[in-house]
Amino acid sequence: MIPLSRRLNDANGQFAGVALATLHLKYFQQLLAQFHIGQEGAIALVLTDRLMLRIPHVQADIGRQMPASPLMEQAARQASGSLEQLSPFDQTVRMINFDHARNYPVLVAVATGKDEALGEWRRGALILTAVMLSLCAVIAVAGHFLIRSMQLRARAEAGLRQARDALGTANEKLAHMARDDGLTGIPNRRYFDMRLEKVFAQCQRIQRPLAIVMIDVDHFKQFNDLYGHPAGDECLKRIATALRSSIRRPEDLVARYGGEEMVLLLPETGAAGALCVAETARNAVADLRIVHAGSDAGQVTVSLGVAAWTPQPEDLPLEMLNAADAALYQAKAAGRNRIQLHGS
């Protein structure tokens, strides 16, 4: 039983008696038993310093003096608060919240077992951890396959690039082989014939002049007989290089026409310009000063035949080529190491 008393005053405020009442603890037991506090939870009702009520109910603890504990020490200093404490009764670690009743020496403390309170959270955390670890494993495996796939793709792309580069190099080599003379490195006759057809048709269409310069190395057979074919090959290489240096415009072309014959193709160039280029080419070969004991000049020289006019609709490329060739033979017949313009 919990005794309750209250002073009574009369109308003048004078003492008129005391009202007494008692509260049966069973009422509080029934009231507090409605709260779900778990298997390790507890509710305690402390009157002054003695335990008056405990949920779950333990008869032996009722009326026992509360031992010194962190709860009692903190409750002595604070009206309310919370803490963790090892229970002096059942040795269970509990999380405790307490509060003092207003105007009465009553302390109410509600405790829940720490393990029990955190158990559900821990189980959820374990499940979440397992799920996250599984997800990480899946991501790791997927990442491994993705990286491997990317590496394979990168290697495949590198292989394709190498194959493409190799194919490009091979095509370029084939193009050079199809275009250039294997000995001198300048374009060959096949390429010259293709360019002549194209340039002749263009100059014919726009009515612009075109020039062809046929070039022949003087006494080249004697040079080979005197110095040997390797020396003859080297001589042709040097002459080709000199002729290439004698032209300046990108559209101009020097090619090996066959044997010791070479040819210049000069688009949009009249007779005067063609003669100037021909003289530059002749001097470039002379400046090589290649010794030739079988030549009257004592060195390698060239003869040049020039044909230049504006192609008319009825003209053919072969006609201009034959004209330049005829001029070349005129130059050789006139003593070699000279230039002859067709029709002059």
UniProtKB/TrEMBL annotation:
<keyword id="KW-0472">Membrane</keyword>
<dbReference type="GO" id="GO:0043709">
    <property type="term" value="P:cell adhesion involved in single-species biofilm formation"/>
</dbReference>
<dbReference type="GO" id="GO:0005886">
    <property type="term" value="C:plasma membrane"/>
</dbReference>
<protein>
    <recommendedName>
        <fullName>diguanylate cyclase</fullName>
        <ecNumber>2.7.7.65</ecNumber>
    </recommendedName>
</protein>
<feature type="transmembrane region" description="Helical">
    <location>
        <begin position="125"/>
        <end position="147"/>
    </location>
</feature>
<dbReference type="GO" id="GO:0052621">
    <property type="term" value="F:diguanylate cyclase activity"/>
</dbReference>
<feature type="domain" description="GGDEF">
    <location>
        <begin position="208"/>
        <end position="344"/>
    </location>
</feature>
<dbReference type="InterPro" id="IPR000160">
    <property type="entry name" value="GGDEF_dom"/>
</dbReference>
<dbReference type="InterPro" id="IPR054327">
    <property type="entry name" value="His-kinase-like_sensor"/>
</dbReference>
<keyword id="KW-1133">Transmembrane helix</keyword>
<dbReference type="Pfam" id="PF00990">
    <property type="entry name" value="GGDEF"/>
</dbReference>
<dbReference type="GO" id="GO:1902201">
    <property type="term" value="P:negative regulation of bacterial-type flagellum-dependent cell motility"/>
</dbReference>
<dbReference type="InterPro" id="IPR050469">
    <property type="entry name" value="Diguanylate_Cyclase"/>
</dbReference>
<dbReference type="Pfam" id="PF22588">
    <property type="entry name" value="dCache_1_like"/>
</dbReference>
<dbReference type="InterPro" id="IPR029787">
    <property type="entry name" value="Nucleotide_cyclase"/>
</dbReference>
<dbReference type="InterPro" id="IPR043128">
    <property type="entry name" value="Rev_trsase/Diguanyl_cyclase"/>
</dbReference>
<keyword id="KW-0812">Transmembrane</keyword>
